[in-house]
């Protein structure tokens, strides 16, 4: 486990406004409670609370990866499609705020409106 710091900063802040995600021809998520994770030189990522994602919109898949700063990532397929989202089920303490949130790949869903 690595800690964020000056050489690899990570910040998590509330997103102001509503976020909507469209995939598979439908609205799969809508929230006014998204978080923005900014990590080093990567583009910002919106994390959406699970309770604001349609229950039948995503299906877990077997893929897992490890981030030394955030922990083990789990992946989800859009119903009838491919891997479109991920989450950290048990994130490391430095990023604990993203627990029970999912992020969507912008290029694997129809739209992320923020």
TrEMBL record:
The lineage of its organism: Bacteria, Pseudomonadati, Pseudomonadota, Alphaproteobacteria, Hyphomicrobiales. Residues 19-107 form the DUF427 domain. This is DUF427 domain-containing protein. InterPro entries: DUF427, DUF427_sf.
């Amino acid at each position: 486990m690595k800690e964020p710091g000056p050489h690899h900063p990570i910040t998590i802040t509330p997103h102001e406004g509503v976020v909507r995600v469209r995939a598979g021809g439908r609205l799969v998520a809508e929230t006014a409670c998204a978080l923005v994770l900014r990590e080093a030189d990567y583009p910002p990522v919106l994390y959406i609370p699970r309770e604001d994602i349609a229950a039948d919109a995503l299906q877990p898949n077997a893929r897992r990866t490890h981030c030394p700063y955030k922990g083990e990532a789990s992946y989800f397929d859009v119903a009838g499609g491919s891997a479109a989202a991920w989450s950290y089920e048990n994130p490391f303490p430095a990023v604990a705020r993203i627990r029970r949130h999912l992020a969507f790949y912008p290029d694997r869903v129809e739209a992320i409106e923020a």
